[in-house]
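FW: tagging you since you asked about this chain on Friday. Here's the raw sequence from the shared folder, copied in full. Didn't touch anything.
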Amino acid sequence: MNLIRFIIPIGAIFLFGKKYIHSIPTDGANLTILLLTIVIGALMGILLVSFTSVVKEEDDFYTIAGIPYAIILIISIGSRSAFSYYVQHNQVSFGQFLMKHQIDSTIIAPAFITMVFTMLLIRMAGILIKVNRLRKKNQLAEKTD
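HL: got it, structure written out here
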């Protein structure tokens, strides 16, 4: 586990954010949409952490993730892709939905990016917690030897 493994994903999210987020509307139902996507990102992050194991081999820590982890990522990416596909092929009905519910179309990019950022931060924090627990457990084991 090194710092670069944590800096690269955060940097990528910031680059996407800078490119696609020009403003974040908070009027009407926009704030609700933004908060909802943050909660979804947090829940997905928690699920990812729960399906990730941390092991120590030699002098480094590694993460192990299996099928449930992959399924969560597929659902995360697939749902955003399905949403984008729907919007592209149903622009009129989607536009009517946005107007009816007082949602600004410019909330979509910030909502997706904050959802992914939240998921990423929680996943990284969870892994760091697991690494620290394993490190402490190993230190205690070495003291008793």
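FW: The chain has one domain: 4-144.
HL: agreed, and The mean pLDDT is 91.
FW: great, closing this out.
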